[in-house]
Amino acid sequence: MYRYDDIDRAIVRDRVSEFRRQVERRVSGAITEDEFKPLRLMNGLYLQLHAYMLRVAVPYGTLNPDQLRVLASIARDYDKGYAHVSTRQNFQFNWPKLADTPDILERLAEAEMHAIQTSGNCIRNTTTDHFAGAAQGEVEDPRITCEVIRQWSTFHPEFTFLPRKFKIAVSATEHDRAAIQVHDIGLQLVKNDAGEPGYKVLVGGGQGRTPMIGEWLHDFLPQAELLSYLEAILRVYNVYGRRDNMYKARIKILVSEMGLDDFRAAVEREFEHFRAMGPGGSIDLPEEERARIAGYFAPPALPERAGASEAFDNALASDKDFARWVRHNLHPHKEEGYVSATVSLKPTGAPPGDITDTQLEVLADIAERFGYSDVRTTHEQNMVLPHLALDDLYAVYQELDDAGLATANAGLLSDIIACPGLDYCNLANTRSIPVANRIQERFEDIDAQSEIGELKIKISGCINACGHHHVGHIGILGVDKKGEEFYQLTLGGSADERASIGEVVGRGLSTDEVVDAVERVISRYLDLRQSADERFIDAYRRLGAEPFKEALYAEAA
Amino acid sequence: MSADVVKIATGGVKKGKNQGLKVVTANDLFTGAVIYWSKGDLWTEDLSDALAVEGSDALTALEKAFADEKAAVGPYLMDVEPDLSPSGRGRLRETIRDRGPTIHPEFGRQAEER
Predict the structure, then answer these.
(1) Residues annotated as region Disordered (chain B) (predicted)?
(2) Chain B residues within an 8 Å CB radius of A31
């Protein structure tokens, strides 16, 4: 993984010192809250319902064991013994005190972490496939691109005060696990006919109150011109994006109002400006610098192994729970004899994405001993061990299981994305996590979930859509009706390469009705599917919303 | 516009009218804990000790709370019943702020009663 150079180290440490002084000035009364608020937000410090919340950046979701241990120590020393994985691959702490925050940031800096670009109207953490570097069929490791973007965008003076926040995601496989079509910019690594790597560029996707699927802006951008092109897009957005209305300030609204052709023409004019400077004159990376960054993402030295493992086969035959975990939580690895494993943070009844200090340390130990010191966070609020030998898998499973980290539900209906909702969030209208927990309890049997197959349920406690409900196969949006919690269902959303925005189906449902309604939709799907291989989303695409609407409201009426 | 119908912030992004019984609430600058404006122009973490006021008195209390920036962040007026329990559209939000997250009964003031 990427390691800080002297410049990275210096800017992060300087930033901690600067924030320490800013906190001191706020406490002394030298600056007002209005002056302090943007400064704390630039350092990832929000104020939520009960306490401050610190969002820690996890660039492209990659962590090493030392970093996990530091996160565990912060959870233990400054929080209430747990941390939370967000839907943008970051970590959040829900209970830090203001006066402790500079010390927390200092501890993070020691482990090459920070909270920069986790808030504010800047370019946020670039996210990617949680199986990056391990997945089959990658053009190249997408984290190289993410790191190039991180270095370009960090403290970029022109893009510190954009009209609104700006999110970029990168995918390097045909199957999109990074939800690139619902980001401000989505980059898909592809190869041209000559076999050269480059990017398909999407722009103007996003969720929130105006969900949109991104539009293809460029079919093949040569890799060497990435930063010029991104800078051109950002310049157009910075100049023309609306600043008069925060709800219309995202780039998706600009692209929609300008029209894709006019937007593209404006980007091309800016791009030509960079091109005219030629190599060495533009902002694009020299090849040697790109190669230096790429060197940090060289694959781990995985010993050659056979495709089959007797130890693995024996465990599979003798331990049904292990077999169940293997069936759902493994992902193919590009090297024979290895797999990637999803470490589910979705046991029934726990807040999706929460992980305790002890669990973080267990995961660090496992990663160190078996996982080539590589751990990932996922935007689906789980974690991943990307490189595990089949020979070691049973031992890994047993240790995860002992730590409560072996829930065998990856991709199943209890693997729910849920925003913090009204239990924590200052913006939320309703709670999300209790609804997720009640659905998990209703469908607790993993074998029954397995029979239902892949089903992505995503829950947001308000229209800001942090729980990604717009792209849930079943999306649930919490709405406030005169002080009461109601839930609006959307069906047919998807965040993969066939991305779609879910369709709103009818009136909101009360707290008491919503779990029954989800169950009726699932029952109808089971009645209507052509085979066990036809996933919920496939059946929905074949049949449309109508049969599911009927099921939803027939008995609820 | 008279004081009793002036538009006010009511927490989060919500707005409301200054009608009915109110308590000034905010977050403690140092800890982020939920606090309430009480008699004697002091902050308390105990809602039952809060000062309940109406109309122009509510706006006056809010003004004083805003002036106490060295202790509190983001004061606003919340609706309460005569017994000082949260009421109105923000009832659930203010109950959660006061007691703690419903998903973690071991945290927040609710934990003290377990």
Answers:
(1) 83-114
(2) none
